[in-house]
Request: fold
Amino acid sequence: MFAFDNSYTRLPERFYTKMAPAPVADPGWVALNEGLARELGLDPDALRDAVDVFAGNRVPEGAKPLAQLYAGHQFGGWSPQLGDGRAILLGEHLGPQGRVDVQLKGSGPTPYSRMGDGRAALGPVIREYVVSEAMHALGVPTTRALAAVTTGETVLRQEGPLPGGVLTRIAASHIRVGTFQVFAARDDVEGLRLLLDHAIARHAPGADGPMGLLRHVMDAQAKLVAQWMGLGFVHGVMNTDNMTISGETIDYGPCAFMETYHPDIVFSSIDQFGRYAWSKQPDIALWNLAQLATALLPLMGDREAAVADATEVLEGFRDLYAKAWTKVMAAKIGMNDMNLAMELLDIMREGGGDFTNTFRALTVDPDVARDQVTCRERFDDWLARWQARSPDNGAMARANPAIIPRNHRVEQAIAAAYEGDLAPFHALNAVLADPWSETEANRPYRVPATDAERVTQTFCGT
Reply:
């Protein structure tokens, strides 16, 4: 089934708790990602016969299941111990593309559950499946969804009893900024050193010590966040325990894609002060990287010199991000002119333009793009100057998708699934797999939400 080689279990046991997932009552299929299975060198037919593995009822051969330990800053506040409160890492699969983690989310309580039940409702499982696979199709580094199953059990949440689900997540690894933070907070220098060596071997071969790893993570995160910004994606919970060393997007809780453009837009119900608004994501990425640098300081000898070195490295983030953001926006408008790009965003803000549809219309038919905003005269002036520069339409076509996972469509799929109807979920996945095409079949998915359909708040779902 899987070809496991579990390097994380070769680290000391204080890094995790060995334990099996908790069985569920009556597992059933929601979805198996056959394309991803093949990419991993796995047989979809064999996986289809193993719903009990994906539900946590049977531990597959070679797995060494565990819950990982980490800490983190959550909305800026320090939490000294977090960890996998509702997830179990089955092991690390060696496939054609290298080593990946295979993790079950919603697999039952662990010592890190913090009074939670360790389970997941079906809705958050569907949300992560849909959005993570959509992000992959859009070319964004991300964890991926291999499988989703129902449990035959209910979980109790604020809105009442809900059907339970388990997601099988594939990741380059689950090492987070918070994984380093927990050992730094405990003055466990040996643990930090072992984790550093493990992370470098897995993600940054050849990196030179702590600052080499920091540079690697910083570069990956600068590029990642620039891609988020270029798609109007709002992660919603950019805590340090949700920033990976690998540079993948992880933990699709209260995430959302903006429709009407506004730089300060927030969807997460728990982000009451807008800490993780769309426009603030680059600054938060730098803040998180500073926490990683702080956690690495004990490995660097003289503290004063280490602080100076780390500060020098971190000062390079804004330049890295600016280059990545410029590249993203140059593709979106077909030319390298950030003043022109920012002016378009300002027009969209004034005129209520849909973020995705405005850029897409500009790519396909600029005359239609003016219909996306109400400030037509200002847009016409911008358009004339832009067209005079002969934009690269090919670059734009590769940068401006026709389809994103619009929030109301995701919520409709979740609501239907709670009623036992998975057809909207599968239909949504099918159109999101090809976000660059415009067809009659996907036309309804390109339409923004009506006032009645608009989703203004999203939830973690834990």
In short: The longest helix spans residues 209-231. Residues 7-171 form one domain. DSSP finds 17 helices and twelve strands in the chain.
